[in-house]
Design goal:
Layout: E1 19-23, H1 32-47, H2 49-66, H3 71-80, H4 88-96, H5 108-115, E2 121-126, H6 131-138, H7 141-144, E3 149-152, H8 159-165, E4 170-174, H9 178-188, E5 192-197, H10 200-203, H11 206-209, E6 217-219, H12 230-239
Helix pairs in contact: 1-2, 2-3, 3-4
């Protein structure tokens, strides 16, 4: 019998090899827009508006090139033009010691625990190899998913590796970027349910998102996933986009 044919209440032990939940971090589980606002404030206070703007230009150039925000990489480039400014050493401390746990969206950890009743949860994120793992660890997300963390550059191109490391009949991907959800859906088809929480500037950019197909499920915030039963999550991949919370 297929897992989707079983009542939700009967699935807690039988579905461990049937479904895997893939969870993005920035603006999905953690408010990265607020982190960037805090960083801008810090740079303004410590270095002034002109230096803040110069750093941010470098950051945005790297974001365009790499597909993620390389905060430490931008700092390295910024340093090349300010080799004698010892305050730069404190900027890295701000990033590394930032209280990421305070930036988790309401219900983020509860959603992870909720989903793990049906199958493993896996952090699937883009990012650098230093700052992004630090963010995931310090926020508590690393422990919440029991160390199942994968950080890539362009994660949507790494699905073969992801599915080999975490084999399942079906996947659920939760991400704020509709472009990434669409790319993953094109690869996995009905084996994937895409979920987009409308959080952060990417999800709220309706003009850019208009060129992509809607996610299978659209929710206002990641905590709303608790309102969905497993049959709804699986069924959405076959029935098409769903915007109203189901139970």
């Amino acid at each position: 019998m297929n897992v989707s044919d079983l009542p939700d209440g009967d699935l807690s032990q039988r579905s461990q090899n049937e479904i895997v939940f893939l969870l993005d971090v920035d603006n999905t589980l953690l408010d990265n827009d607020q982190l960037e606002a805090d960083l801008k404030w810090h740079l303004t206070q410590e270095f002034g508006a002109e230096s803040r703007d110069r750093y941010w230009v470098l950051l945005e150039k790297l974001r365009t090139t790499l597909g993620y925000a390389d905060y430490l990489g931008a700092l390295q480039q910024y340093r090349l033009g300010s080799l004698n400014d010892q305050r730069l050493l404190l900027m890295s401390s701000f990033l590394v010691d930032y209280p990421f746990e305070k930036r988790l969206y309401p219900g983020a950890l509860e959603v992870i625990r909720y989903l793990q009743d049906w199958g493993p949860t896996v952090i699937l994120s883009d990012g650098d190899v230093v700052f992004q793992p630090r963010k995931i660890q310090r926020s508590g997300l690393w422990d919440a998913v029991e160390g199942r963390v994968r950080v890539y550059i362009h994660k949507e191109l790494m699905l073969e590796t992801v599915t080999q490391c975490h084999p399942a009949r079906h996947y659920v991907m939760v991400d704020d970027k509709l472009r990434i959800l669409s790319a993953m859906k094109k690869t996995l088809g009905e084996r994937l349910t895409t979920v987009m929480p409308v959080q952060g500037h990417y999800a709220l950019d309706t003009q850019s998102n208009a060129v992509w197909p809607a996610a299978d499920i659209t929710i206002e915030c990641v905590g709303d996933l608790i309102n969905y039963g497993l049959s709804a999550l699986l069924g959405a991949a076959r029935t098409g986009p769903v915007k109203k919370e189901e139970s």
